[in-house]
Amino acid sequence: MKRNVSLQEISDGRLYGENDMVRADCHGCPDCFRCCVGMGNSVVLDPFDIYRLQSGEGRTLAEFLSEGSIELNVVDGLVLPNLRMSGSGERCSFLSENGRCGIHESRPGICRLFPLGRYYENGDFRYFLQTGECSRTDRSKVKVSRWIDTPDPGRYHDFLCRWHYYLNALEERVLGVEDSEASKRLNLSMLQCFYLTPYDTARSFYEQFEERSSANRKENSFL
Ligand code: SF4
Ligand code: SF4
């Protein structure tokens, strides 16, 4: 989800790469689950999140949708999946009674990042530290790649860039077509190709992303 705010207002004013040290480590968040509640539909999932959830939890997106822990919403004209917050406390569906993440190993990229965010510019991105989001004041410094805790950080970075700029292009196209049926078709094609068709978890995600990108390019003549 894009935010139109100045980086100076919400960060420490620095941008970080995967090899930089950043004061983000909140030591396992003891007694705190503030960023697992009240997040609305902002914890949007990317195709790697779906692959990671399918590998770790053994369920496809269709199954998560049918159990109600993930939902679909329109974000900037695109239909994308996000973690569902529920109940009067607006709790993430994966948050346990005692305030712990029930899918810690497979949690999505946005959860792994927090309190970092991604700042995209010039076809690439870097990380920034959100200063008003995490309530812990005694955070330690940690290497960004260690904090994100995702194998093969270079490939993951490349994928995130590709995905972000693909969604930007798709958004422009969807918002630019006057025929609502055409925009629905573009959304459905993206959802089916990158999210709803189950992944082969015995194979690399990145190979499958390449194959799916190529199929989507043929079908919709772009990416
Ligand atoms: S998936 Fe886990 S870490 Fe992410 S919001 Fe839900 S409970 Fe919190
Ligand atoms: S607000 Fe900070 S300490 Fe609390 S759960 Fe989120 S990251 Fe952890």
Overall domain count: 1
The largest beta-sheet arranges its strands as 1-8
Find the count of extended strands (DSSP E, 2+ residues): 8
What structural class do you assign from the helix and strand content?
A: alpha+beta
Major pleated sheet = 2 strands, antiparallel
Number of helices: 8
Instruction: Tell me what portion of residues adopts beta-strand conformation.
Output: 15-25%
pLDDT averaged residue by residue: 93
Please tell me how large the radius of gyration is: 18 Å
Helicity, as a percent range: 25-40%
Each distinct ligand: iron/sulfur cluster
SSE topology:
Layout: H1 7-10, E1 21-25, H2 47-57, H3 61-67, E2 70-75, E3 78-83, E4 85-86, E5 91-92, H4 109-113, E6 116-121, E7 124-129, E8 140-143, H5 144-148, H6 153-176, H7 180-196, H8 205-220
Antiparallel strand pairs: 1-8, 2-3, 4-5, 6-7
Helix pairs in contact: 6-7, 7-8
The structure holds iron/sulfur cluster (2 copies).
The site of one iron/sulfur cluster (SF4) has 10 residues, from loops.
Describe the 3D structure.
This protein has eight helices and eight strands. The protein has 223 residues and is of the alpha+beta class. It has one domain. Helix 6 runs antiparallel to helix 7 and helix 7 packs antiparallel against helix 8. The chain is globular, with a radius of gyration of 18 Å. One iron/sulfur cluster binds next to loops.
Quick synopsis:
With 223 residues, the chain is α+β, with helices and mostly antiparallel strands. The protein is built from eight helices and eight strands. The mean pLDDT is 93.
Could you list some keywords that capture this structure?
8 helices; alpha+beta; globular; binds iron/sulfur cluster; two-stranded antiparallel ribbon; about 220 residues
